[in-house]
Inverse folding.
């Protein structure tokens, strides 16, 4: 069973993750992960910190001479600005520390419920962990999963569909080419004609002390039919993908395939006809993909298509009203950091989050503890479903 | 830890669930559950089976003299049409059975991926379990959770927002009153003016051999701040709710609070200002609720608001193209059952699914093994957050 | 992931279990389970209830025409003496019920801690679930697992080593033959010469109002090397077996292979030399089996050997001192039931408990959702380790 | 839910653990852990490496100014001899590395099953993770749990009962004093008169190229009645303790309270009479403790008593027969390290492993996210059970 835990405060010494259950024999380099970490830091509309931190992963375990061992993989990212925070965030009581608790919860953040839940008097004790910086850990973990998937010709792509109400037009191309287009610009849109308008929207929001959200789409190609299961609620692939993505910071909506539009469309135009194409990877195909690759809680052999809505960054230069936790007096919320838009980065994070869930379901289906064993099992399955 | 498993084929002898981790001392009657089961069977647009099956739960364990024991609660619904299926679905090899395997997978169902995954030659072996009949089990489990929540003044409501593209207008009332309006008509809309139009849409779809989906909204009032947690991805309440709902049959989208609209709206109009109201249940309040009651993966004290998109029923009288699993020849998909629209029922199911997840998070936060102990812990918490 | 939940009070209407994660395509009949249930009810030293209850399982789901579907298997045993308990144990408030709470906790039972934990005023609310009757559910679940293992030539056996201090001599035979000897007598000893002495010990204890415990051994043959894993504490096979067995009612000790004797023996006489035998099932063999088939938290290809100590039945005719929960006054503990010795039954239960854990680890290693797929994966693995 | 993952190869750069679910507000210093790590490295009979590595933990997250945050705690121990292994164990392909695979599996180790399971050609890829060095991680995690328990006056102790067949006499003293005696000598026996004999046994074994195992006992005082539960197999406290301890390297037996001796003793002398003592911590008491503090899968308010059998270290100077994985030729097993006896260290590890499981069950029972909240809940419970 593939599983992981992440740890780390935003301004603590490091982000640490442990990924458990990866098979042995997978070629894996730090660069496989660093590429994803770098993609996560790009995008028009980011602020100063993205320049400070150039995240690099260190393997602390689980990989030897560029190949996984089957043992847990500990992944660590040093926080480069730790030195500036060492006194304030020291694990040890630090005599230089002048207590300066944050008592002003910021709207849209974990600050208020976190302080109440954990009984914190200093909101910093919440915000450090709730920060979207944690997504760097999830990218690490997902990047390893992605390497596994690539061995079986499963690939994860994404692109941004809209930012702050500016919508890209749909481009009708295979996922790999959509992805390439998205990678060509700093808002990750496949409709390159919309890039300028989005830049302007971000610039205007920034000038306004405001922030913007958006929608991105994740696509997974090459997923064989039968990942997940219809037999029990918590094994359904769509549910697991929805949890993984909705648990990402700032996400407020997840839809699969046609998504909310199914509510507007009669069944005869929603469900995907089934055909057989001996030349296709899995034999049986669908002549449309409104299901977004998942039926009955299982992958159905088509591209998995998920769209995700990210809310605007919660920290505004133009602060919202709040009240002090101790005095209950109103104040204008303080500013912790300063990106205007992180939707392009979110799409990269989303890719890696999805990669993890798909890899987890893949390993459940095919078993095995080494790439060679999994490959043997997988080929056996593909042969069976094609020849049945 | 509250958990459950469900079991049962649609035309098997029974649906069986085990709910584990409910505290002792909760007043619980079969009627508490039967009320929810009955609500699940209502709604304009249902077909013949809803008339056959009038679901009633039997407690097989965990309840004595109307009070929970703290032991696992086994919940069983007898399938009333079992007698007609006994030969075909007999657990034992049955000499009267003339094999008549279903080899024609229906678009939009689990049929194809399920048959490939499990190696079934008879699609019935998939469809019996994948059927939305399983949601009766989830309603049983959720109805028990709901009783627990009611002890702590937490209530779950729902209403239907649209069916087949016909949208109810928003009514500005407290959740309990919205619910009452919804209960007053057979499409569960709070905008009673739209009921006729929806009836007509359903009738038209039915005449057309077609089916309709829709969107419903679930509301949970009285949830204290601090359920779920920001500290680890799989503890976030929004992720867990999204999984629970997306794992429900036919669901293709889940959004919380403002949902996908956050992508269109600048941050200054998305995030909810914080205030303090000593007269309120939890002290701290928000002056709007675009977050839908969840920030940082935790409940924030406001009403939890979730919208869910259900696709049209997959079985059409006007069947879609498919191919035989054995011959690979095209055919027009067969009809297994015949509802035209199940969105009102889905909203009831959604309520109960949400109730389970909230109850699970509630018990994690407050611990305890009896209602008395949980109440003591809960009051202690409420006092603390109000007096801090 | 193979998992299960059990439910049911000892004098409630039924015992219900749900087993989730069994693959499709396994031949399975109620008799496969009833045989184990019957074995569980035998043994010298049992009291009256074993005659009343002749346990028979009913499949409520997951099996069709004698073959598993891959869906959850709901297993139900009707409690035959339910009619006599219906008023006292009615799930519904019953006007005929004259409250007669048990307030006298019995030493050696769950009564006291259970009443305190769950806040029960009537100890019956604890003892009904804590009863060893629950092991009938675990036998059901284990008997299904056993069928799975048999497909892969993995077999589970047991025999009793001692009862009440009377020890069987070790017989040097293969496990299957030991098992056959054990099945030939009502104390399940392979040393048939000791049967009379054990009968006498049980008779004497009974005459004395006393009870006896004992030690039994479970053996599993044909387990391939590599189930479990050394990489994470909770995946180790020995730990999982120890949990499964220690969680069985009345068990106070578990040891694997040489067990506690390793503490008395130098390493040179403990560790098992490795050899290669091309004619053996797995190629590599050990020339002794002090490890009991598990090294580094993994099966090593040898027979798994576990010994388990069961305490004497806690209910004595010659009752022990206790105090009333309400009055705190001393009393002599009441008698709920009346077996003198249940060690032979415990050995049967132990077999089935072990079968579940081995099957779970087996499915994790080989993946797959149907017997055909698992067989293909398994053969691939065996070929690989033999030909490497 | 308290949970953790450990990671790290024995000669890799570091051992890393993540402990998830610890409440906020717990005073915690690195020294709390380092004390336990130092105790783990002591004991007569250890070899050279114990001198090289003086383990020190670093908090990478979850602790600020000496207090836990409620967020995951990442615990890291740098492997001090990493520099000598950097080329051989480099996560990156290293041009200086001359492949020198270990192909000779050592009896008693994970080497053989691990190589077969994971398809490794170099046994080092197994042994690095299977090494008992991993127990340093488990001590880290357990030491944090121990701090939590200490807040509630729950304390974990241990002592060694026998080594290599030399048995300490039982000393009749309270657990804290037994522990103090054990800490006074380098074999951790409370019977100081046996220390010389054990030294001699270890010296003799060492001279012989042999190794010794032994038995230790863990004691937990102050555990309230009601941790764990009787209602479901996997919630029983005894089962969970057995898993935790049996999953520790080299453990072959676990027994609770009277343990295997229950098989020799009639019930009237096994079960513990119940009494009431208003002056005691929990009100109800037992006048003996043969149950070892656990009845019905729950703590019963008495001291928890567990004994654990550790096998002799598997690496012998006088090597055992084995065969090369590639050539299948016999050889005499190679030596990886060189302790003669690690039973005293094992007892320390056992303490910390037990502390984790007790803390996990404690948090399940009392809920809460901060020490203040847990304390309030706990006091409420104690008051209730004392005043009922």
């Amino acid at each position: 069973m593939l599983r992981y835990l992440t740890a780390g405060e935003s301004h603590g010494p490091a982000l640490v993750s442990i990924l458990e259950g990866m098979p042995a024999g997978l070629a894996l380099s730090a660069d496989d992960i660093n590429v994803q970490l770098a993609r996560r830091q790009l995008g028009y509309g980011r602020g100063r910190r993205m320049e400070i931190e150039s995240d690099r992963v260190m393997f602390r375990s689980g990989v030897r001479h560029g190949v996984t061992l089957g043992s847990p993989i500990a992944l660590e990212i040093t926080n480069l600005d730790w030195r500036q925070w060492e006194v304030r965030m020291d694990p040890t009581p630090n005599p230089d520390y002048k207590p300066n608790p944050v008592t002003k919860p910021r709207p849209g953040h974990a600050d208020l419920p976190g302080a109440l839940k954990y009984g914190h008097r200093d909101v910093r004790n919440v915000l450090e962990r709730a920060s979207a910086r944690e997504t760097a850990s999830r990218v690490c973990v997902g990047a390893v999963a992605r390497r596994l998937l690539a061995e079986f010709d499963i690939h994860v792509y994404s692109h941004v569909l809209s930012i702050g109400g500016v919508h890209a037009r749909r481009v009708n191309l295979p996922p790999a080419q959509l992805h390439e287009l998205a990678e060509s610009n700093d808002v990750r849109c496949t409709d390159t004609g919309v890039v300028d308008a989005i830049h302007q929207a971000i610039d205007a929001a920034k000038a306004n002390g405001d922030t913007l959200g958006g929608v991105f789409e994740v696509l997974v190609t090459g997923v064989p039919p039968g990942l997940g299961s219809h037999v029990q609620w918590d094994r359904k692939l769509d549910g697991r993908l929805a949890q993984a993505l909705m648990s990402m910071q700032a996400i407020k909506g997840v839809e699969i395939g046609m998504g909310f539009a199914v509510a507007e469309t009669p069944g005869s135009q929603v469900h995907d006809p089934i055909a057989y194409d001996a030349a296709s990877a899995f034999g049986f195909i669908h002549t449309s993909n409104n299901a977004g690759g998942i039926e009955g809680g299982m992958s159905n052999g088509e591209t998995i298509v998920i769209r995700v809505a990210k809310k605007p960054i919660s920290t505004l230069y133009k602060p919202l009203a709040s009240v002090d936790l101790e005095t209950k007096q109103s104040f204008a919320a303080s500013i912790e950091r300063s990106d205007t838009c992180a939707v392009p980065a979110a799409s990269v994070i989303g890719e890696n989050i999805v990669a993890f869930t798909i890899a987890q379901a893949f390993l459940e289906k095919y078993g095995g503890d080494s790439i060679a064993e999994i490959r043997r099992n997988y080929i056996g399955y593909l042969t069976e479903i094609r020849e049945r």
Q: What stands out?
A: The longest helix of chain B spans residues 343-366. The two ends of chain B are 29 Å apart (CA to CA). Chain B has a mean pLDDT of 95. Chain B touches chain C through 54 residues (CB under 8 Å).
